[in-house]
Amino acid sequence: MMTPSDLLLLVQAVASGAMCGIIWFVQVVHYPLFVRAGGDERAFALENQRLTGCVVIPFMLAEGLAAAVFAWNPPAGVPRSVATLGLAAVLALWLSTGFLQMPLHARLAREGHDPDVVAALVRSNWLRTVFWTLRAILAAWMLRAAA
Fold it and tell me: What is the pTM of this model?
């Protein structure tokens, strides 16, 4: 029978895995194509933010909640240090999003798709790409370690 901890481990693994896939798509395909956006680039940027939020916010919240719960009370078989590392990675991701990528998105919405701003977005997003890849690996490891 699946325990609440088992269910939360599964939710964490799905959320982290989904965000890992999304961020790699964003890094390799989506952000680089911003410089090719036509028409009203500011409207494009605003709509991109709105639609992206609808996809990523539920995963980010689920991942963050799971990471916080496990840092406080790690599942059997998962060292507290590993669970704490998972929470630290989530916090790093949220800080990067809030202080690096969101301000760049705001500039794109205000000014249109300046190639220099798009390049800064692509460069800074490597941080999230690496951290979400590590989060997905860590979440999968935790799922396996607790099994």
Answer: 0.95
